[in-house]
Amino acid sequence: MPSFWQAAGLTYNRYLAVAARAVRRSLKEGPRLQAERRNNMDLRFAKWENGKQGEVKALDQANTEGMAAQSESK
Predict the structure, then answer these.
(1) Of 14, 36, 45, 49, which has the highest C-beta tally within 10 A?
(2) Comparing C-alpha atoms, which of 72, 44, 39 is closest to residue 60?
(3) Listed GO cellular component terms (predicted)?
(4) CB under 8 Å, gap of 24 or more: what pairs does 15-21 form?
């Protein structure tokens, strides 16, 4: 039996991001602002093929594109 986040069509990382955002929004003003500042990240990656670096992409953009491609294939 698949997990509820899988049944909803989410990856585990996306599920964690949604849950973390819900928790941060439920905090009082002071702790919420501190938690939101810790949330700001800029992750990038690049695929390497034949010893050469490919295009550098932002992780959030690639995740959005991957989710859209996955939903289209269903």
Answers:
(1) 14
(2) 44
(3) mitochondrial inner membrane; proton-transporting ATP synthase complex
(4) none
Quick one: CA dihedral 65, 56, 6, 69, positive or negative?
positive
pTM > 0.70: no
Separation of alpha carbons 70 and 74, rounded Å: 7
Top-confidence range, 20-24, 34-38, 58-62? 20-24
- pLDDT, tens digit (0-9, with 9 covering 90-100), for 43-70: 788 889 999 999 888 888 888 888 888 8
CA distance 3 to 64: 21
Domain ranges of the chain: 1-40, 42-73
